[in-house]
Each structure stands twice: as C-alpha cells, then as structure tokens.
Amino acid sequence: MTLTDKRAVVFGGTSGIGAATVTALEEAGATVIAASRSSSMHPVDLLDREALTRFFVQNGPFDVLVNSAVPSGRVQGPFPELDLDGFQATFNKFWGYLHSVRLGLQHLTEQASIVLVSGFPARKCRPGASAISTVGNTVEGFVRAIAPEIAPRRINAVSPGLIDTPLFPQEGEERKEFLQRAVHTHAIPRPGQADEVASAILFLIQNEFTTGTVVDVDGGALLP
Length: 224
Description:
The chain has helices at 16-27, 49-59, 84-90, 92-104, 130-150, 172-183, 194-206, and strands at residues 7-11, 31-35, 62-67, 108-117, 154-160, 214-217.
C-alpha cells in the first residue's frame, strides 16, 4: 500500500512515538496532521467528544488514524493500596482511543487503517503496574473485538516494550541507569527507540492483509 496522496492523523503526534510516526508517514509520502493537547496548530482533547467531532469535521477525511496519546491520568503502586480514582483515571487512555475510533469512523475512507498503541504490561505485568496492564489488555481486546465490525477498514495495535521517550522524567546519568535496570533481563538488553515502534506502525498501515492483531516491539520483554 503506497501512502502517496494519503491523509493521516496521529493523535499524540507531537512527541515520542507519535512524533516518530509522523516523520515515518511523511517520509512514506503521506500528508499528516499531528494532533495533541499540546499542539499549537491542532490542539485536541480526546476526552472532549464535541471538540473531537469538530476536529474530524474540519480536517477529515483520513486514510490513516494512529493514536499513541498518553493521558496525564495514570497511577502505579501495589494494588491493595492503589488509589481508586487514580486507577479510574488511568483508563482515560482507553476512552481517548475509543472516542477517536468511534467518532472518526465516518471520517475515514473505506480502506482506512487504524493503529493504536498498547504496551507489553498488557501481557506481562510487573508488580505495581496493574492499572497500566489492565488498560493495555482493554486496548488489545478492543482491537480484536471491533475489527470484524468495521471491515473493510482495518484496525491493529502495536505493543511497545520500554521505549526511550520523554515519558520518563529522569535526566542524564540517572535516566540512563534507570532505563538500563529496567531492560537488563530482556533478550535485547537496551531500551527501544521511538522510530523502531514507528516502523512497526508503518508496517501495519501498509500491510493490507492484517487486521485485529497486536505486533510486539519489545526487545523480547515477553519472553520467559
């Protein structure tokens, strides 16, 4: 599938995996809108359904929809002590994904491709990550559930491992040591890069025989 003359929207497209995906799509020939809460040109709050509907009306139609947005609400810690409001807020990621797909459907072309971003904790949860894991499971289940209903449009997910993005606030040597500790047991013992995830997203967009699947880009994090 060539992306020349295709129009794409990337939610969460101003940093990290989203920004790398914007670059990959543009290099493949697509015209791309990078939307996010922090975007100066296309500010979008995925939890504001009216604003999101206006965005699609004003900017659609699209051949590609990618959502890699990470909401501010997320919580970690032992489940028995976990703040329930924080756990609920972690699901803002899923609600944003659901809104973008449901409200975007009528503004997607018939052969459009949708890609959502999950994460390896969905299937390998470390202690303290139950909220993030549950949301990831929900995203991946959502992809499998709706794929038959929205065909011939396609929907898939990419599940990254630990990726070196601005999501991690540490800096300098502290950041390097934190990331290295987190991946030292993986088959590929280094953090991934945003463009490595973007290349998997591009594969799912261009492969017209793939839908309802999850592609892992995790350096072997799921291996025993």
